[in-house]
Amino acid sequence: MRSVDVVVIGAGPAGMSCAVEASAAGLSVLVLDENPAPGGQIWRGIETATERRGRILGPDYGAGRTVAQAFRASKADYLPSALVWNISTEKVVEYSHRGASHQVQAGAVVSATGAFERPNPLPGWTLPGVTTVGALQILLKSAGLVEEDAVLVGSGPLLWLMAAQLVDAGVPPKAVVETTPKGRVLAALRHLPRALRARDYLWKGLALMRRVKAAGVPVHSHATGIRIEGKDQAEAVSFAANGRRVRIESGHIALHHGVVPNQQVTRLMRAEHVWDASQMCFRPVLSDMGETSVAGLFVAGDGTGIGGAKAAALQGRLLGLRLAARAGRSVAPERIERLSAGLAREGSVRPFLEALYAPPAWINAPEDATIVCRCEEITAGQVRAAVDLGAPGPNQVKSYLRSGMGPCQGRVCGLLVSQIIAAKRGLPPQKDDYYRIRPPMKPLPLTELAAYRPEGAK
Amino acid sequence: MTPAEAGRSADLLVIGGGIHGCSTAFHAAQRGLKVIVIEKDSVARHASGVNAGGVRRLGRALPEIPISERSMQIWYGIADLLDDDCGFQVAPQIKVCETEEELDRMRARAASVRAMGFGHEVILDQAELRSYLPAVAPHAVGALASLRDGFAQPYRTTFAFQRKAQSLGVRFHEGLAAQRVSREGRDWIVDTAEGRFRAPVLLNAAGAWGGEIAAQLGERAPVEAIAPMMIVTARLPHFCDAVVGAAGRPLSFKQMPNGTVVIGGGIRGNADPRTNLSEILFPALQRTAETAADLFPIMRGATIVRSWSGVEGRMPDDIPVIGPSARHEGLFHEFGFSAHGFQMGPGTGAIMAELIATGQTDAPLAPFSIARFASQDASTTH
Known about the structure:
Chain A: This is (2Fe-2S)-binding protein. By secondary structure, chain A is of the alpha/beta class.
């Protein structure tokens, strides 16, 4: 079996940066990424974006080009279109590439699999025509496609960024419906002094909002009671704002309530997690170095807790250097100090943003009739009824209802089901209140398994 | 006796909240016994909640057939018994033969089952096989079948036994391990983190951990912890109504009502009873995937979306330990079902409750006695 010092999963900001530093210091590094080109979600299509698309997406997106170039120039072995579908307790990484599966023995595994969007279980969210803001942005980054008449609904920096990008692309959204509850600005203010250490984020955020409003896009604030209407297809979104009910017709509704760490790899390997009340998600418990409770499994980037692309790249570089230092390679201590200081500065804006854009409580407490598990079509009411019967946690609910058993492996409903159960108990989710993740993490053709005969297999 | 002590004493103390512990508790409560169940994890956490869900009489070890038969009669009425359908559906269980030699072996098998007085196992010729399984590969020559077996949802079933038992007054203590088992006068004492439990009768239904409990009371039962592996596919168009096995290769195969296909067959992963964990070994599943695709060409278009496994207890002779202790009065064993205990759960629970409550049963339990391991040399342990 092939053996490498470090297997990095994911070629976004954290994965690429980690690979660059670790390979420069002399470690053998293999980067496995499911996309055909580097960049991850945030810098998707970075090597092929046209000048016009680059202008629309802005300088933060453009920054990815330098990182991708350094990554391409590095000694790290990079395998695009490679789907990691299992990692054994002995750190044998199993992945699919061009229709065949392979094994590689990793000395260390770095999970740099980033984040995904928090689910938005609103009435009508499973109708065709409803998507997420992140999915809309992927279309823009990868294909330059933009939807006309899109209504953006939710909260968070990405909502405003996308609205501004649509304005710049010449197809402004039909409306922005913001769900940030009243009083959040006030609650966030106490974090403002610290946030000023990274004030450029704040100015950028304000500039985005100004640009959207200046383009004449109607903005509705503090919206509640959101429903997507339509029979076989989204036709309109309705909500309450400023004491009245508003209805906006559109066949394209994009939802967004922030992003949460992707915990599939860390849960698969049974690392310990904690509930983060500020970000309303689980994150892995990490040592100062970035190691999980499972020896040899590390996390860098948004998978550690949401910090954004710049922080992810810094975390990746730091982890690359620390892995090299741990393996006895020479690493200048001042480089580690400098990167750590940069990371601390990046982190200073987070408490402000988290207080301001914490998702409204109702987004995690869907109505009984609303579907939470899209794969198996299980409603919030069914989950609550299972708890009433005596199912003690997410895994028993999963066994009982099949929620989380579909092809997405609970990526969409996992956090929701944890929170619905916790709410019934009146306590925040406990550390083990999450689905046990069963391999394969990504769907694997049966014929590929039937042909899977790795050399020296364990 | 303080109220706390009263809450921890019963007529029957059951160690293990799997299907056997839950079913026995339910049946004993039906007979008027006061029952407490102690489960170190959560009900149905291990083999009882994660097995393949086959409700199978077909192909059982001959001594198991009378018990399996009795259990089957309970299965047919399970929805009324437990107020939950348990996902149970009657369906044929079919063991496909790929060669004439395999079919001959199955003919002999069916004859010996008939000779015992049981008629559920029948031979299907090639045409009959195709009528039950139109999607089976053309090279299949026939099959051994039990046409009124079925399948159910394992977690749902065990959970339903628990709830029904609770409604009859059975108390469950989950997340509570039996740390030490001992005897005080005529009572069995089980020490736990929440104090001392006491009852004149003790049932060891601790599955893969049953050997340890028995050992504390001086009885030898060499249980091996195993982790049978299962894989499940994304939904496929409906093509199979039966639960399928193969006469010559390890396979268990069924299409669920929602279209997903569950494939198992006894290939094992790693089991660690100390940490409660099991691990899937995909290279070992290569053959399982190959067998499924060989027997059902439609499976060549299937996609695997999940796998699972769980910790199960296996005895060296692949049949369980069921019955009274060979050493102590008031002690009973019901564990080590060796990866085929799910179907027997309702029946063994009824039999054990009968035995505990009345002191006797007609069920032929002799082959399952724990005494069969007593004389063996320690070198046969695993």
